[in-house]
Amino acid sequence: MRFTVRLSVLLLAIFSIPLAAPLPGIAHADAQSPSPTIAVGDWWTYNLQDPGVGISGTITQTLTGSLVLLVNGVSTPCYRETISGTGTFVRSGLSGTFTETGTGYVRQSDLGAINSNVTVVITAGLTLTQNTYSNNSIPVVNEQFPLYTGKTWVETYTTTNKVTTFTSLNPTPTITTSNNYTAQLYSVTGSSVISVTAGSYLAYDIHSTNTTGTQDAYYSPQVENMVKGVSYYPNGTVQSTITLQDFNAWAYQSSLTVSKGGSNYDVGLMADATISNQSSNSTAITFQVNATSGTSGRANVAMPLTLNQQPGSS
Q1: How many angstroms from the chain centroid is the CA of residue 221?
Q2: 20 has a pLDDT exceeding 50
Q3: pTM recorded for the entire structure
Q4: 10 Å Cβ neighbour count for 279?
Q5: CB 253 within 8 A of CB 269
Q6: Domains in the chain, start-ordered, CATH in brackets?
């Protein structure tokens, strides 16, 4: 996910506090940027599993708006993304539920992450709330397009985190601020068809490493996002896994003009693979979706309501 808040990391930090006591204060040879087709309203829902913390839940990421922000003194077109999630956890005899809500901003040109503001609420006998505001010194590019096997790059940046925590037993917030330097090494190690609940999609394995561990992010041009992500502790043990459950994004788009009653109408064609052989007549619109062998294919047609009405209807 481009706006990534690792819920498991937040929960691990929260679980270091004793909760039982009051708290003190595709058909591509390579993967091109999705910028031309990604749009406000696109969304992706993931299943999250973290065996160490016992987390099981879902997280949805949605592009909710576009705006211009001042980033390091430069006016920068950006997307606003929201994230929402719910789930359960079981850890050391303690069980409960969590919710997560937040907003983040990414640069439109390369989807580099700028900042995020996320709140996690945990209920386990008492309620614990933690808000984390994170701001990167530069927009952090997790997917440097175009992607192809063998590509490598490095992102070095500092993240300023402001964490505010309080509980239902002690509503007085404690606030901590930290600056964390990261040198993240990325390499595209290969591509393959990855099967998840949402379908089977050609994906590029982006392997990244820093001092806290490693991650394999399987980015699919068909999905315009990750289809799967696996995070590992430094010793190689799996920390958490996310897999795509459902999504609404159309990487391939085309259009054709349909005539009816002396008027011309534009019809939008959308798919997650190359569109070809499009045609229309007075009763039908046809086109072909050409996906990589073994992958899923979806299509959608957007037409004016007038064009879809039967004669004599209103």
Answers
A1: 13
A2: no
A3: 0.87
A4: 10
A5: yes
A6: 7-248 (2.40.360), 252-308 (no CATH)
